């Protein structure tokens, strides 16, 4: 149960911090943090929670990550559904908090016809820069695949895992720097679902892509790392002892 609470709070903070920065701070007149600030916010939230509760649950905070680690042989299938439920509930709770805060400003309304409304994800007319369904799918698939490769490599028992939280946080930052104009960046089905539920309309009908593409990319990434990259040889042990005496 502690693992599920850790996933709940970790995902809550990711959505609250990342999407919150996009909703409240990205477009603030003259002082807005812009794309770079939002990208950094997502990276910092993951970094913080990785060190805060990662030792409890493994620090997934993302259904795609759970699927990827399962495919890579690092996560039991029996825990998949409980983790995903905890992640989605945490994300939705965070979106609800953001909605409550945003509603405290006079005139607040979510325009479900606008790309990126309430930090939602989308493609076509709901892509921040008008990218197609195909482009959005490829971006989400490839970025999640590499996210899993990096997570598995950084947390491998032969790697120097002391700084894995920093590596993962910075990777998520780079992912956002690349893809905010394309899809408003998902690589996290729980994060996409939570915002789409409050926006409704077309963004909610498009949320399937932000489950299918990240999960498929994550599963392939986990499979690739496990079967093509993971190395448990004596050479790896020697290399580790050389790097971390």
């Amino acid at each position: 149960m502690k693992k599920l609470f850790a996933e709940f709070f970790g995902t809550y903070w990711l959505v609250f911090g990342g999407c919150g920065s996009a909703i409240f701070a990205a477009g603030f007149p003259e002082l807005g943090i812009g794309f770079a600030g939002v990208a950094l916010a997502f990276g910092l939230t993951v970094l913080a929670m990785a060190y805060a509760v990662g030792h409890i649950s493994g620090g997934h905070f993302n259904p795609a990550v759970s699927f990827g680690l399962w495919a890579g042989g690092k996560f039991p299938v029996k825990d998949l559904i409980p983790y995903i439920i905890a992640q989605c509930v945490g994300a939705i709770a965070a979106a609800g908090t953001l909605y409550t805060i945003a509603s405290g400003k006079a005139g607040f309304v979510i325009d479900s016809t606008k790309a990126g409304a309430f930090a939602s994800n989308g493609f076509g007319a709901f892509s921040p820069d008008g990218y197609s369904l195909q482009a959005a799918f490829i971006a989400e698939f490839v970025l999640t695949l590499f996210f899993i490769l990096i997570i598995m490599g950084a947390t491998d028992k032969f790697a120097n895992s002391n700084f894995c939280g920093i590596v993962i946080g910075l990777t998520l930052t780079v992912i956002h720097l690349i893809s905010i104009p394309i899809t408003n960046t998902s690589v996290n089905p729980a994060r996409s679902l939570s915002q789409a539920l409050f926006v409704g309309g077309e963004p909610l009908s498009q949320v399937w892509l932000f489950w299918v593409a990240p999960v498929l990319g994550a599963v392939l990434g986990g499979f690739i790392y496990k079967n093509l990259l993971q190395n448990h040889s004596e050479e790896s042990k020697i290399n580790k002892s050389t790097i971390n005496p």
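DSSP finds ten helices and no strands in the chain. Residues 135 and 224 are 23 Å apart (CA to CA).
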